[in-house]
Protein: tRNA (5-methylaminomethyl-2-thiouridine)(34)-methyltransferase MnmD
Organism: Nibribacter koreensis
Amino acid sequence: MALEVRQTRDGSTTLFVPELNEHYHSVHGALQESLHVFIKMGLEDALTRWAAVRILEVGFGTGLNALLTLQHTLATKAEVVYDTLEKYPLSMEVVGQLGFDKFILNPELLDFFQPLHAAPWEQAVAITPQFTLRKLEIDLEAFAPEPESYDLVYFDAFAPEKQPHLWTDAIFQKMYDALAPGGTLVTYCAKGSFKRSLKAAGFKVEALPGPPGKREMTRGVKPTE
C-alpha cells in the first residue's frame, strides 16, 4: 500500500493513502484532532473514574494517539495499559519520514517515539513504569477481546465509506461487550448510521464538539447498570 507523508494545517504530519483517497488524520490538524478526540474527550474523561485505564485503540497508524497518551501519563502519573490493533503496520522507513520532531514540542516525549514503533508485536512492553504497550497485528473483525477487558476504546479506523466492514452493528456490539460498565468509546465520526449502531449495541450516545474543521464527534458510554 503506497503512502505519502503530508502536512496538516496545524503543522503536524499525517499519511495519505492514494488507494483509498484517505488521510490517516484530519487535514485540519492531525495533532489537534488526536488531542481533542482521544485525549480530552476520551482519556481525561476516563481518568475521572479510574486511576489506571485499560485502552483499546483501533488503528495504531503513525503512533500519534499512543504517544500523546504516554505524554499524559508523564504529566499526571496515571497508569495506562494500551492495546492497539493494526493490520498494516508502517515500515520503519515511513516512520522515519513522519517528522514528529518538528511539531512535538516536548523533547522528553520524542525519546519514546522510536521505542513505540520498535516494540515487538504481540507482546506487552513496559515503555515506562506507567505505560504498557501491546501492539497486535490483526484486523478488528478477527480480534476477540475478553468481556469487560477495557475501560476506553479509541476508535480511529478509516471513515465508514472507506472501510464499511469496520463500522457494523456486529463490530460495535463487540466493542460494547469488551468495555467495563462506565467505559467509553470515542471517535471523530458523527454519522447517523454509526450512532444508530452504537445505540443498537446498548451505548448511550453523546454528541460532543468536534476538533478543528469538524462540528461534532461522538462518545458512546456503556451504562453502569
Observations:
- The helical segments are 30-46, 64-76, 92-95, 107-110, 113-118, 169-178, 192-201.
- The longest helix spans residues 30-46.
- The longest strand covers residues 179-187.
